[in-house]
Design a protein that fits this description.
ABC_transporter_permease, mainly alpha, two-stranded antiparallel sheet
């Protein structure tokens, strides 16, 4: 009885210490996340400008967004970016993590080099790539020097829609792949080395070890990174806004940029908030469908 009483006291003490450390986090989470969400929902049902609330409009903001062709065009641009960027933001970091996991000299230096762009601000990244990609910039100069382009020929990387999308995807991949790379590298290092040793003794080459040991062991991590990458790519804004300004002719304007322009340029905060909630619900649905898809494949043993 005395031992049980001591265990209960120790458990209450540990719970009390945990509560002390968790309380500030939950306080900030409630004040800066939960409260703004419900306040934003309240705003979305009103005619609201930078000057303040002007009146209750019910579902009018949502109905207007549904009928707005620019809303759906921006959503389409966002989906297009997600489809282009997600495979690269999975494959490139995974390939780099395989290189870094190998027993190579200078691995620490390479990790620093590969991850370094991730710590730079979006304004710095955008400025550097604008210098590289403008018509008289570094990339076209290199392409002319090696003979791919003629001396008088130019590629307008930021002024032609197809090339602008390629540029944005490459910028984003170069800038953000470091985070996924570190996650993949952590997953690789958690795989027991004796599995690879046994497979090598049995005659398995590098490709067989990759497909029969590495990928199955990292399946859950790949699913998680894929879902997080889709969500992150769906929220693309800063690099597009700074590099192409949504142009040419709004061909690269994404959903977040359109929400921003609706709220702060058109002075329709209620409408932009309604669009935000619609987009939020869409992201939840897409994430749910991804998990359902991956779980169904898992149940089938694929």
């Amino acid at each position: 009885m005395h031992m049980a009483h001591q265990n209960q006291r120790r458990k209450r003490k540990h719970n009390g210490v945990a509560a002390i450390f968790l309380t500030p986090y939950f306080a900030f989470f409630i004040v800066f996340s939960i409260v703004p969400i419900f306040y934003g929902l309240y705003v979305s049902f009103h005619k609201w400008t930078l000057a303040g609330k002007e009146g209750f409009v019910g579902l009018d903001n949502y109905l207007y967004a549904i009928k707005d062709p620019d809303f759906w065009a921006s959503l389409g641009h966002t989906g297009y970016f997600v489809l282009l960027s997600t495979p690269l933001l999975i494959l490139v970091p995974f390939a780099l993590s395989l290189i870094l996991d190998a027993k190579l000299k200078g691995r620490t230096f390479l990790r620093t080099v590969y991850f370094m762009p991730n710590i730079l601000s979006v304004s710095v990244i955008s400025f550097v790539w604008i210098f590289i990609l403008r018509s008289d910039g570094l990339l076209n100069t290199i392409l002319r020097d090696i003979g791919i382009l003629g001396q008088e020929q130019e590629l307008f990387w930021l002024d032609e829609p197809r090339l602008a999308w390629i540029s944005i995807v490459l910028i984003t991949t170069w800038w953000t792949q470091g985070f996924n790379m570190i996650m993949f590298l952590t997953g690789l290092q958690d795989i027991p080395a004796d599995q690879y040793e046994a497979a090598t003794i049995d005659g398995a080459n590098a490709w067989k070890r990759l497909f029969y040991i590495t990928l199955p062991a990292m399946r859950d991590l790949v699913i998680l990174i894929t879902v997080l990458t889709v969500i992150a790519s769906s929220k693309v804004f800063s690099q597009v806004f700074l590099v192409t300004h949504g142009g040419p002719a709004n061909e690269t304007r994404t959903m977040i940029q359109y929400i921003y322009e609706t709220g702060f340029r058109s002075n329709e905060l209620g409408l932009s908030t309604a669009m935000s909630f619609m987009f939020f619900v869409m992201l939840i649905v897409v994430s749910f469908l991804q998990f359902k898809f991956f779980n169904r494949k898992s149940d089938r043993g694929e």
